[in-house]
Amino acid sequence: MHYSYSSWSGQMPDFDSNSKTKGALEVLKWAYHTYPNDIVYACSFGVEGIVLIDLISKVTKQGEIVFLDTGLHFDETYELIEKVKVRYPFITIKLKKPLQSVSEQADSHGDELWKRDPTKCCNLRKIMPLHEELDPKSAWISGLRREQSPLRQKTNFLNKDEKFEAIKVCPLIHWTWKDVWRYVHENNLDYNPLHDKGYPSIGCSVCTERVLSGSDTRSGRWANQKKTECGLHFDSAPKD
């Protein structure tokens, strides 16, 4: 059976969600066998990303990662990327920049576009660059978990991605926040120190705030905006 965007039937292989990695390792093995040179992991280098990179390293020594380098990320995120490069020298990490620098965007669209029109800013600095990276690929990997938000609860291991016209592979859909951190600590993985300072979900520094204990893990993204997603996976839904 072919598993491409154009021939997608909705039928999926049977992955064991009760395995030690709740299906994640099995999904990755299948994905790299099915799309050996035709798949990329779009990683934001949050803690889920660190888990996926380690799992990918157990499956292939030729993994390809793209990081959407908006030019607005925290210093801690860039520092973590350098640590990951050292730990996994066989994995290719590409920092994909938008067409315009932050200053060039300000000249074209006005200063601090993320405050006035965050959806347009995300489109320019994240969605359009990812389109460029995914256009030649048949599949891409994402760290989405069902527990993260209501919009993500229906995510499957394999998804027909209408936006990027590719198959989106989501190995961690059954992992909980505790599962993620258990894996990180058991394997002594480096992670962004901002996670220890109240940032469960980390994006651009200008659009990410600390989260109160017990709040939705993504509530610090685009705080005080009617926006919950950058648009890579879903269109934003109004916050409660």
UniProtKB/TrEMBL annotation:
SUPFAM superfamilies: Adenine nucleotide alpha hydrolases-like (SSF52402). It is found in: Cytoplasm. Signal peptide: none annotated. [4Fe-4S] cluster binds at C121, C122, C204, C207. Its main location: cytoplasm. GO terms for molecular function: phosphoadenylyl-sulfate reductase (thioredoxin) activity. It is an enzyme of class 1 (oxidoreductase). InterPro entries: APS_reductase (IPR011798), PAPS/APS_Rdtase (IPR004511), PAPS_reduct_dom (IPR002500), Rossmann-like_a/b/a_fold (IPR014729). This is Adenosine 5'-phosphosulfate reductase. It comes from Guptibacillus hwajinpoensis.
